[in-house]
């Protein structure tokens, strides 16, 4: 495989990986924004609970808020798990795409190499044919010179 083909393969793989990394960072950024939003909501709920506890209104409202906090935490855990699975799937797809790109580049390189070999064989045959023609011309000239001498 020549250097140009290797560089093309390397560039294609780098481009594919860069795109996938950018996508992964985007997904992580979205997840972080969601985490910050959830944290803000939890802090707000905690402040409300603290205020209500300070006012002596514990009972049913505190229980509801605790339930809401638990539901939010469960939702967050579920979303984080789903996001992790999606990231794994996207990474696997990226790797498969990179492998496919490499295989295509290798097939192209093999095809190019085969064509080069065919061209070399054609060149050699052409060269041998030309040498044969030159030999016939020389033989014809020698016969003509011998006939003139006789």
Itemize the secondary structure elements and their pairings.
Layout: H1 3-55, H2 59-149
Describe this structure in words.
The chain is mostly helical. Helix content is 96%, strand content 0%. It is built from two helices and no strands. It has helices at 3-55, 59-149. Helix 1 (3-55) runs antiparallel to helix 2 (59-149). It is rod-shaped and about 135 Å long. The chain starts with a helix and ends with a helix. The mean pLDDT is 78.
Throw out a few tags for this protein:
2 helices, mainly alpha, 150 residues, single chain
Short description:
The chain is an all-alpha fold and 150 residues long.
- Low-pLDDT residue intervals, each spanning 5 or more residues: none
Shape: rod-shaped
Number of strands: 0
- Summed up, the helix count is 2
Range of strand content: under 5%
* Percent of residues in helices: over 70%
Instruction: Report the biggest beta sheet as strand number plus sense, adding barrel if it closes.
Output: none
Radius of gyration over C-alpha positions, nearest whole angstrom:
38 Å
The ordered string of helix (H) and strand (E) elements is HH
Q: What is the rounded distance between the termini?
A: 61 Å
Mean pLDDT across all residues, rounded?
Answer: 78
Helix and strand composition category: mainly alpha
